[in-house]
Specification:
Two copies of one chain form a homodimer. Helices cover about 35% and strands about 0% of the residues of chain A. The first copy, chain A, has about 325 residues and is mainly α. In chain A, strands 1-2 form a two-stranded antiparallel sheet. Chain A is globular, with a radius of gyration of 20 Å. The N and C termini of chain A lie far apart (about 45 Å). In chain A, helix 2 crosses helix 6 (about 145-155). The first copy, chain A, contains 13 helices and two strands; from the N terminus they run αααααααααβααβαα.
Chain lengths: ~325, ~325
């Protein structure tokens, strides 16, 4: 992994990555891993757990609180707010199409949706549970969950493993196909406006697609350095480099300021932008990316064209039923 | 209103209120007021607004955060948690069947669902918006709301009036019929167990139904004094009298410790209990109510029978679709 990453980074820094792939439409289904095949009962249970605030210490924060499935899959905040009003240093990434991320979290420290789902629940400033034993004990106290776990996992007990597998199975269904862009690449040439097509061509011409390629615009590499080109003027305004990205976890200086390449899908809905949510508008985000990653100054028209194209990446949200969560029986947890 | 209330209180205190009504099933529809007739577009918009955390200063608290429509209509917390992790002194009442409350809030200070909906949004420890001008400006900035308001209200603008009317219209659909009790009174004598029928008879015999009568078990009076019978031992444990109820608003000593008679519907799902959420279990709540309101000591068996009956008041939650909220367009609010 580290070898591939370094190679991609080096190529991108040298400005030599070509637009590898054709324009791809978003798949309507995501593959599930061999040890967690998707089934309907698992998805249904996962949807319940994803929306259950009782997975947090205060009973007020569910996965959906920060990765809101009624909105653009996140919270439109610069940094997320967890239990007791606490905030961290990073902006919540969207859950929509997270199934197509090669790694999860801004710093890519989780290799799968299952691994990711195991994180926030016990993070003291996110969902604040002491440990997974406490999570499992609480879920076991909610009797109505038992048949759902049995249907999803057979005889397997309620555990960190089954909880995170169910949540991941649900998240694999959170796909937003049929954006104007998808309809365009499927052959409907009227699906994008002329301005959007100009923006699409500009994105390729500038080299944005060197990193933001593939159907979710988040490949081919997993990681990228940001900012790639140091810029004191913008650093003073946005403090992008304060957070060392992957190096905060790996403690490896080579990983400093490496970040997961985020999807561009539904990006019009997920302001504010960047890992620290410091940029409020999409036109500013585009301007900064061109400058800090590609060393290019865009004209106002070019920015407008690219933003118009990015608007065309907003897909259709799947229609979901609202889950009914099993009741807390006759007692409370706080 | 005050005259009726005083009369009911006096009668209840004298222990002379008889069980006025027959056992009533829950209506499946709630009447709407003349100035806010329910229509489908209004309900759909109301559902969106009810679940939209952007109605709070932090973008993290929606109506559903404390009155959770995926659970028992509240948050299973002793006191609700609003923006920035702040807590107040009262437990969130359930939204299920709130349409059948004669007055709203624990202290009954709102005469309608519309009036209630106008409160928490600008309460500094609940949803924390500065004022309704700010709420309206924010909703106007979310372009996708406009067609929904037009469909619901014709040419009327986005305003406190239309927002609260839409939310109230949605809340009038949050009815939970078909509980075992409802099926029993409709003629299915197998719907309640023998123990539950014993509990039902006990509830009438003790006089609980003097206040908790009618289909939602929240009538005939609007207000009741609690605790009706002072008890230093329990006061030291549960601090029921610290909060003066309606008098906190009216500043009238005659209103001290007057509370809305809360519904018993779905009470098995809404622990912890009482206005300050100080009692964790339903059997303790039943024991305390008998002692503090009726001056009676119940046996363990009587408590178990009544709790079994109350379990029979858990109804069927309507199947809802998950709303898709219009996106925050290209900028953020915090």
């Amino acid at each position: 992994m580290f070898k591939i990453r370094s190679l991609v980074t080096a190529l991108a820094l040298a400005g030599s990555v070509s637009v590898a792939s054709a324009w791809d439409a978003l798949p309507t289904q995501a593959d599930s891993p061999a040890d967690n095949p998707t089934n309907a009962a698992k998805v249904e249970l996962g949807q319940m757990l994803y929306h259950d605030p009782r997975l947090s210490s205060t009973g007020t924060v569910s996965c959906s609180s920060c990765h809101n499935t009624m909105l653009g899959g996140e919270d439109n905040r610069s940094v997320a707010m967890g239990v007791n009003g606490q905030t961290g240093g990073r902006s919540a990434p969207t859950v929509w199409n997270a199934a197509f991320n090669k790694v999860q979290f801004w710093d890519g420290r989780a290799a799968s949706l299952e691994e990711q789902a195991g994180g926030p629940v016990t993070n003291p400033i996110e969902m604040g549970m002491k440990n997974w034993d406490e999570v499992v004990a609480r879920l076991k106290s909610i009797e109505g969950y038992k048949p759902h776990f049995e249907q999803a996992f057979g005889k397997d007990l309620i555990s960190k493993d089954t909880v995170t597998k169910a949540i991941a199975a649900y998240e694999r269904t959170l796909i937003t196909p049929d954006s104007p862009y998808d309809r365009y690449v499927a052959g409907d040439k009227s699906a994008l406006t002329k301005q959007q097509v100009r923006g699409m061509e500009k994105v390729a011409e500038l080299g944005c697609t060197g990193c933001h390629s593939g159907p979710a615009f988040n490949g081919p590499g997993m990681f990228q350095k940001f900012p790639a080109i140091p810029n004191g003027y913008f650093e003073a305004q946005y403090h992008f480099s304060k957070d060392k990205g992957l190096a905060e976890v790996s403690k490896n200086p080579a990983d400093e300021h490496l970040w997961k390449v985020p999807t561009l899908r539904n990006i019009a809905l997920t302001a504010p932008y960047f890992h620290n949510g410091s940029v409020k508008t999409l036109d500013k985000a585009v301007t900064l990316m061109a400058k800090l990653q590609l060393g290019k100054d865009l004209s106002k028209e070019e920015v407008a064209d690219i933003v118009a194209f990015l608007d065309g990446l907003t897909g259709e949200f799947p229609k979901q039923k609202m889950p009914t969560l099993p009741g807390t029986p006759g007692s409370t947890f706080n």
